[in-house]
Amino acid sequence: MAKTDAIVLGAGIVGTSIALHLIKRGLAVALVDRRGPGEATSYGNAGVIEGNTLFPHAFPSDFTSLLRIALKQAPEANYHLSFLPQVAPWLWAYRQNTQLDGRLKFAKLMRPLFARALAEHEALMAESKSERYLRKTGWLKIYRTEAAFAETERERELATQLNLPFRVLDSTATRAIEPALADGFHRAIHWEGAASVSNPLSVTQSYAARFAELGGFFINGNARTLRRSADGWRVNTSAGELDARAAVVALGPWTPDVLGPLGIKLPLAVKRGYHWQFQPRGNTSLNRPVVDVENGYCVAPMEQGLRITTGAEFARRDALPTPHQFNLLLPVANKLFPLGQPLELSPWLGSRPCFADSRPVIDRAPGQPDLWLAYGHAHWGLTLGPATGRLIAEMMTNANPFCDPKPYSAERFN
Questions:
Q1: 317-322, Cβ contacts within 8 angstroms, sequence gap of 24 or more
Q2: Is there a contact between 164 and 50 (Cβ–Cβ < 8 Å)?
Q3: How many other C-beta atoms lie within 10 A of the C-beta of residue 41?
Q4: Which one-letter DSSP state was computed for residue 346?
Q5: Rounded to two decimals, what is the model's pTM?
Q6: What local confidence, expressed as pLDDT, does residue 414 receive?
Q7: Which pLDDT band holds residue 1 (cuts at 50, 70, 90)?
Q8: Which domains occur in the chain, in start order?
Q9: Cβ-count burial of 30 within 10 angstroms (0-12 exposed, 13-18 middle, 19+ buried)?
Q10: Torsion angle of C-alpha atoms 341, 346, 350, 356, degrees rounded to 10
Q11: Quick check: 180 and 284 in contact, CB under 8 A?
């Protein structure tokens, strides 16, 4: 039977970052996943490091938006009717948390993590020699109507107070920095402090390779077998049983499968999301990700082509894919940017693990000594992976944490 200091369950960007930070602090660490590093949810995102984020994604409140979603005519959201009774309490709590008071609270409590997001990525990229994937060109959010742009007023005011750099552009100025975009939108905000990566999978794999260089080892295993052992925690792997003094569960949307049998039930929901990759048409290109806010999708330039990511779909995590949103958004996206042929036969499906207050849990597991939790990062797993890794490693090694971890406590749900 093999033994180590810490087992990290989950080799997405969050778990891989945790493992790397732990081994840098002198622990012997095993990173365990059923798949390779970065091959699940961490693969299929828009590649944006959103250090500029202030507010969570708002729950639609106006009647027209709600009616469009109910009639499945809104590309920004979809749902499975049979799933709505199960998720309704969570949706109500989410709606309450995205009212103005809740948004301001989120902005205050999450700012320490978002403020460190880019710097922590840059540090790990320098170590792992993966700087080539980083673009510090910001990202664009376009608004097709004056009303939609006007709704950003409070966000822009707060960004100014916090010295977060951004520029408000008209359509002409927007096309000056992104010439391939067509007309048809009113304004844009260029969030200059954001960054993006051209290959999220390769970034996670580079961090995993650096972890291995420092003596860590990755092994395939079944996280659902996590259980108590005489000295701490035990999990079954492809090489047999593995024991450790401490364990970290960073399995994103699969975390409840491991915590439930241990008696830990936190109110997590899953926002499913899709991406589909396309060739650009002709010699067109984008210099940065572009969000079509009113239609709820992002077009992001990747090494593989142009990746279009959708908004949320509310359905059971393991239900069959229903990429209905692409039927609505592709005609709109094609008018904004000339898309060529798809590079994949069908859209990719992933799941975003979300708590109703849009904050992750980065904490000790309630009632389980030497078990740690790092999940529920919602739309910001890539953004916050390295910052989460640093924070939880500092907590586990009794170092002074770079920010107060209390807002990310599991006990806040009691």
A1: 317/253, 317/270, 317/272, 317/351, 319/80, 319/83, 321/274, 321/346, 321/347, 321/349, 322/78, 322/80
A2: no
A3: 25
A4: S
A5: 0.97
A6: 85
A7: low
A8: 2-42+202-267+357-413 (3.50.50.60)
A9: buried
A10: 80
A11: yes
